[in-house]
Amino acid sequence: MPGVLRGMTDGGHETVLHAVDRPTGLQAIVAIHSTVLGPALGGTRFYPYPDEDSALTDVLRLSSGMTLKAAAAGLDLGGGKAVIIGDSDVLGTEALFEAYGRVVDSLGGRYITAEDVGTTVEDMAVVARRTRHVKGLPLDMGGSGDPSPMTARGVHVSMRAVAAHLWGSPSLAGRRVAVQGVGKVGAALVELLAADGADVIVADVDRDSLEEVVAATGATVVAPEAILSASCDILAPCALGAVLSASTIPDLRCAAIVGSANNQLATRDDAVRLADVGILYAPDFVANAGGIMNISVELEGDGYSQARAADRVDRIFGRMTEILDVARADAITPLAAAERLANQRIAGS
Q1: CB 286 within 8 Å of CB 158
Q2: Whole-number Cα distances in Å, 162 to 169, 198, 318, 322
Q3: 324-333: long-range contacts at Cβ-Cβ below 8 A with a sequence spacing of 24 or more?
Q4: What angle do CA 120, 121, 123 make, to 5 degrees?
Q5: Helix, strand, coil content of the chain in percent (nearest 5)
Q6: What is the model's pLDDT at position 11?
Q7: Is the CB of residue 17 less than 8 Å from the CB of residue 29?
Q8: DSSP state at residue 260
Q9: DSSP label at 288?
Q10: Contacts for 181 with CB less than 8 Å, ≥ 6 apart
Q11: What is the sign of the dihedral through the CA atoms of 239, 243, 10 and 293?
Q12: Angle separating helix axes 306-314 and 316-330, nearest 10 degrees
């Protein structure tokens, strides 16, 4: 069992666990924000944070966002997240993931992990050697596999809900959509948009990923530093978070923002800043819930079904429509409307 550095609460989280395993180089933080609705489900992010404080800040934000995401999605799950500090290409050995599995198992099922940035379904299969509290497993193990396509599907139906709200039709044909980040989710989203007949522009620091997306879809490439200010109907942040801030919002030239990245707003005040300049912000924890919905099907007793997962993800259209309608009727931001919906469900449990 890896040595536990310390367990703590921060006043808002139920548990924050720091753990190390020196032989494998594992340095992990698991944050359980809430188990009010059920066990905390959230992926494991493997990332070269500059220091432990940065990792802690990220895992606290991500885990609290997972609580809202599960509640708003109508799932009987709580919110949690984990981070492993380091370069996954260097440290991501089977021994490390087995050690991490023992960390997850020590929480007794209060936290269920899955893949996230820097980890894969194959990594989760290794984690599963040491704990049963892991999902997002490979299809040949009875799992739900890569959640990226379902996450992209949820963002896509959210865009359709936003289009219906703003322009009276859910069609995205002819709409210009700027996608920041074409990793697994972003690339899948671009394919869906291209099939719709949308005019898609993309940016990413990874040239190989860009070339693959362009070859498959005919999307137009712009420089990474230009994507946020590109003139478009919908901006889709699909990389890391905190890209919408007091410094970037004045340069935006979009009608709406609908993306897959977690914590797109640098601060809650940025939701108001967006509203003040007439940009509709679709709350990220609603739009990107397709991944957790996909995994929730894996948790059900009769096993995973892709068709059942797709049906569940498509319900995001109705949930997003409800949130946008409430925001308009009550003259509040969509973020406030989504948080109200989630918190009411938590309070009523």
Answers
A1: yes
A2: 9, 14, 11, 11
A3: 324/161, 324/162, 324/165, 324/280, 324/282, 325/165, 328/165, 333/271, 333/272, 333/274, 333/275, 333/281
A4: 65
A5: 45, 20, 35
A6: 56
A7: yes
A8: S
A9: T
A10: 203, 204, 237, 238, 239, 240, 261
A11: negative
A12: 10
Residue 214 pLDDT > 80: yes
**135 catalytic per annotation:** no
Summarize pLDDT for 81-97 with one digit per residue, the tens. Answer: 999 999 999 999 999 99
Strand order, beta sheet including 199-203: 220-221, 199-203, 176-180, 234-237, 256-257, 280-281
Under 8 Å between Cβ of 11 and 61: no
Q: Which among 69, 81, 135, 184 is annotated as catalytic?
A: 81
Q: How far apart are alpha carbons 271 and 335 in whole angstroms?
A: 7
- Which stretches within 87-241 are classed as H helix? 88-91, 94-105, 121-127, 148-167, 184-196, 207-217
Residue with tokens 């946008």: 324
Amino acid occupying residue 227: I
pTM for the complete prediction?
A: 0.93
Amino acid making up residue 16: V
Tell me which amino acid residue 147 is.
P
Residue that wins the pLDDT comparison between 217 and 11 = 217
Length of the chain: 349
The torsion of the CA quartet 136, 138, 144, 150, rounded to 10 degrees, works out to: 80
> Residues with Cβ < 8 Å from 111, sequence gap 6 or more?
30, 32, 39, 40, 41, 42, 80, 82, 104, 133
Per-position b or e across 27-65, b if 16+ CB within 10 A of its CB: bbbbbbbbbebbbbbbbbbbbebeeeeebbebbbbbbbb
